[in-house]
Every structure is written in C-alpha cells, then in structure tokens.
Amino acid sequence: MAEPMGFYTDTTVCIGCKACEVACKEWNQLPSTNGGVNTLSGDSYDNTRRLDGIHWRHVKFIEQFTDTRQDGRWLLMSDVCKHCVQAPCLEVCPTGAITRTEFDTVVIQSDACNGCRDCISACPFGVIEVNPVSGTAQKCTLCYDRLQVGMEPACSKACPTQSIQFGKISDLRDRAQKRVEQLQQAGEKRAYLYGADDKILGGLNSFYLLVDKPEVYGLPPDPKMPTRNLASASLFHVFGAVVVGLMGLINFRNRGARLDDGEERP
Amino acid sequence: MNTYPSSTFFSAPPEWGWLIVLYFFFGGLAGGCYFLAVLIDLFGRPEDRPLARLGYYIAFPCIVVSALLLTLDLGRPLRFWHMLIESNTYQPMFKYWSPMSVGSWAILIFGIFSLISFIGALIEDNRFDWRAGRRIRRPGVLSKLIALLGGFFAFFVAGYTGVLLSITNRPIWSDTPLLGMLFIVSAASISAALMLLLAHRSRFRMPAIAALQRMFGWVGILEFIVLIAVLISLGPVARAWLNAWGLLLFFGVILIGMLIPFALSWRRDWLGDLNRATAAALVLVGGFILRLVIVFSAQGV
After folding, report:
1. Is it true that domain A5-223 has CATH number 3.30.70.20?
2. A122/B104 CB distance under 8 A
3. Dihedral pair phi/psi, residue B46, rounded to 5°
4. Residues linked to residue A73 through DSSP beta bridges, in sequence order
5. Mind listing the domains of chain B with CATH numbers?
6. What's B84's DSSP letter?
C-alpha cells in the first residue's frame, strides 16, 4: 500500500472564496444545484449550506456576532469527507460498494452502490448523500482518479491560501503541529488539531486546525462507530425474542394434546 | 449555543420515508405472524391448526410486500441483488456486523421458509393438491424442522430492523440499544392483533384463540414497559421528542395503541362483541404509528 494520503485544512487561513467547491464540481463533473437556478440561503453568504451528493466540498461560513452586531468574527472552514481510518460508512455498507484505496482513502464505487443509504445514517459527520442524477450515495473520493496518476486533488490545487493542503498524512501532521505552535505563540491559544491523532475514529485522513469547539464548526465532539451498539442491541433483540417465545410457549403449551407423528390431521 | 445531547446530532438523515415505515410494519407482521403460527404449530392442539395456518397465510404475502417495498426504496432498485452478490466479483456479499447485510439474507431465507409454510397451509386446507408436498404438512419431522428454522428467521426479521437503526449515527436511533427489542415485542403485539381480528372475522372458536388473546395482553404490557425503557435509555436525547412527534408518540402509540386497548381488555362490557376487535384494531394502528414516529422523528432532528 502506498503511504496514507490526505488533507490538512488550516481553517485560520481560509478566506471563504469557495474555489475548492468550484474545482471539485468541475473536476468531478457534479451537476448544478436546482438545475442551475440560483437558490439563496437567505440568512448567510453561504448558499451551498452543506455537503451532499452533488457538493463534495463545502466552505462553511460560521458567523459569530453579538446581538448588537458591534463585535463578531467569521470562522471559515472548507469541509469534506474525513476519510476516517475506521470508517463508519465502509463498516455498514451492505453491498461492498465502499472500499478503502491504496492511499488509505475511502471511496464509494458508484457502479456497485444501489442507493440503500445505510452509509448516510452511519456517517457521524453528515458527509454522504444521494446524488439525484446517479441515484447512488456519493461523496469526496479524494480525487482517486487524480491520485492514481500522481496528481493532487482538485480542491487543494485550487486553494489560493493553502488552507487545504494535500500530502502524506505523516508530513501533514508535522506541518499542522508546527502551525498550532506558531499560532499559540502568537497568542491564539485556542488553536488545536481535530482528527490528527488516532483518538477520533482511528484518525481522520482529512483533519483540521480549529480555533473553537468542534460543534461550533458543525463537527461532532466525540464521533463513534455505528457498531458500538451491535453487541448490546443484538443481545436485547435476542432477549426480546426469548421473552416473547417463552410467553408463546406458556400460553400455547398444551401437553398431551399435541399432534404425534402419524396422527390424523383434523 | 451549540450544545448537543449526543455526538449523533451531526449526521445527515438517510431520507428513509413511507416505504420504510410500511416495510417495518409489514416486515413485523410477516415475522410476528410466522413465529406465532410456529408456536401454535408446535405447542397447540390439533384443533388449533386453522389458527396456525392463518399465521402462515399472512406471513408470506407480507414478506413479499416487504421485499418489494425495500427494493422500491433503493436509489437504484434494479441493483437490489448487490445486497446478496458482490457486483464486481460475483462472490456472496455478507457482513455479519452490518444488520442491513444480514437482514437482506434473512429476508431471502425467511421468504423461502414462509413460502414453504404457505404452500403447506394451502395443501392442508385442500386448496392446493400436490402429493409430494404433503410432507411439509404437520405432523412429520420435516414440518417441525421447517417450523423451527422458519421460526428462527421470523424472530430475526421481526426485530432486526430495530437493531439496524441502532447501528447508525442518527439521533434517537443510535442513542438506545433497545429498538430491536421494542420492534420484536411490537411485532408480536401487532401480529397477535391481526390474527385475532381475522380469526374474529372467520368466527374461529378453537382453544388457541383464548391463548392468543392472553398472549396479546401480555405482549401489550411488555411493549409498554419496553417503550418506557427506550425513553429512559435515551436520556437527554429524549428531548428530541419534545415536539409534534412526541405528541404523536403519546397519543398515537401510548394512548390509542396501548392504554385504550388495555382499558378495553379490562372493561369488556364497553363495546360488547366489538370490544376485543376494537382493541386489536387500535393496537395495529398504534404499531404503525410507533414505526412512523421512530423512522420520521429521528430524521427531522
């Protein structure tokens, strides 16, 4: 396997230009929203609003303003599939359409997906949705086709501020750690990395430098694997079956009056 | 701002809608009626046989409808077979840790057993003349084997959908491990209700009717207890039901689907002959609303 590859996104230098969104759409030939009809969100300069089957990159605009609007700040974050080392979507996919590539990234094979949408409910980040054109679940492939020929993903290539950086995960982690130290020395004590170590789902191959709590960015503080409930839910299911079975046995039991082999049927 | 009772509140809804609600209902009826029929088959009297056959008659059409609903719900329905066969390699596709994968196989296998039992019931009722098929009728080792294996898969089909919901990252669904238990108990409840309703319509008078009526009451109480346990196990996430869905859960499921049927069972003079039938019909309505609330409410969060 090739060295694990991924993204390091430094949210402090994102300017919200959405060049990454456009580059992603262009390279992956994703259709326009609403057939090209301009749809405004109405309460934000962000009109994409979320990741879905036709938006594999989304620059979040987090607008933190006081009620008087005299003070405030913008947090900007280019969101994307996290390409989790322990990927919940891959774990539950019943068709085998979701696979791990030689770059340690997670890809949905559109020709194998049948649109059951189990992966959508499994992803703790809300990354995956159905592409209405293909009828299949889709998300960022980390430009698997470009990686295979030695190119970098379209979004990081287009990013004008190097907020999105692509490379070997080990290199990116070193770079990100140095940036955190630099920011903290400069007085931004809130800077930290989200998903750079293995505490979140074994590590995120697309990790972030943040300056506020994860939930402020719409990221779960403690995402978990869906199978965390498998043992307990299965046990309770079996327990329910046993209790119902025993109730049936007690109620329908009629010793001595059962049909014996060879007895005539009524 | 930005306080969430669980990390599940950042996931996206899978847009499972009416087709899945209907599947959960018909799948519950299929599994529930089959395992009730098996219990009557194995432990009942010879004169109870028509009631067991009634269960088999309900189970097979319900599982066929279930499979159709599931297929129609897919984004690419013609690829339904990808659940069973890996489309790239043509190898069997099976993940024991993915309830949807296991469930797909279970529906297929249960479908086969319910078809066999359906044919067996037709032969026994002399509606279908097939000499070789007579072995699948009671009594006989083969019939017992079919009942036992089919019953096992029926129990699975009746409750695995709740487990499937727990193996996600959606609020409510994955915040409790009890949905599988709730669904299997509810399956027993709605299936007993439907069988009692149809038996009432057919004027069945065998001893198992009284046993089924008793079982109907027991699973009703059990379902109420499990639903309360679900609410407790949700902890702060239960706040997600402080809305119209919560009202529907209270009025549609607890009041109409549980408390009024309990009251009807206690005060048998209220509606006379219609008392039991009304209670059964209300339990069916409550069972449907339960699935409706669970499927839709978690997706609106």
Report:
1. yes
2. no
3. -55, -35
4. A64
5. 15-297 (1.20.1630.10)
6. T
**Cα A152 off chain centre by:** 20
On whether ipTM exceeds 0.90, the answer is: yes
| CA distances (Å), origin A110, targets A113, A122, A151 | 5, 18, 22
The strand pair at A98-100 and A106-108 is best described as antiparallel
Query: Position B239: which residue type?
Result: R
Q: Which chain A residues have a beta carbon less than 8 Å from that of B159? A: 237, 240-241
The model's pLDDT over B227-281, given as tens digits with 9 standing for 90+, comes to 999 999 999 999 999 999 999 999 999 999 999 999 998 877 777 778 889 999 9
Domain ranges of chain A: 5-223, 226-254
Q: Which residues of B touch A53 (CB under 8 A)?
A: none
- Neighbouring residues of A12: CB distance < 8 A, sequence distance ≥ 6: A183, A188, A191, A209, A211
DSSP B85: B
What is the number of other CB atoms lying within 10 angstroms of the CB of residue A153?
28
- Selecting from B3, B7, B139 the residue whose C-beta is nearest the C-beta of A224 gives B7
pLDDT of A141-165, one tens digit each? 999 999 999 999 999 999 999 999 9
SS3 B92: strand
